[in-house]
Specification:
Length: 137
């Protein structure tokens, strides 16, 4: 399998949920996928829980992952899939996969931010304001 760089971008925040997009090369996650992931987050994340999403416009499929923090130090997740030609048609996926190498970039950043801002400094607002800078990885 050949390495193909992906663009990771912060797409803003809705209340306590941060949103990220990942796309091939210098592209952007398609708007239909981003909207579908935000809808999925609105249904999946418990009321008031902080979290983050990833709308990943991957080579073979449109992927949505919704994460939220619970019990102080646990990250919970729901995974979604849509065909490449209909990125807004996300459906839940029950699979053993956790994340791809590009998604792990976002997860690692969010983990370190949670440790620093919430667990060490007890400052949820600082965590919510912190976002991964745009990157090509």
């Amino acid at each position: 399998m050949a390495y193909d760089p992906r663009r990771i971008a912060f797409l803003g925040r809705q209340e306590r949920v941060k949103h990220y997009g990942i796309a091939l090369g210098y592209g952007e996650a398609r708007p239909a996928l981003v909207r579908a992931v935000r809808r999925a987050a609105a249904e999946a994340v418990p009321a008031g829980a902080p979290g983050f999403t990833i709308a990943h416009d991957a080579a073979a499929a449109a992927l949505g992952i919704v994460y939220w923090w619970a019990n102080g130090n646990e990250v919970h997740a729901r995974y979604y899939f849509a065909p490449q030609d209909d990125p807004g048609a996300l459906v839940p996926v029950h699979d053993t996969g956790m994340a791809c190498v590009w998604e792990l970039e976002v997860i690692d950043f969010e983990r370190r931010a949670w440790l620093r801002d919430v667990l060490e400094d007890d400052d949820l607002d600082a965590y919510l304001e912190r976002a991964l800078e745009e990157a090509l990885v």
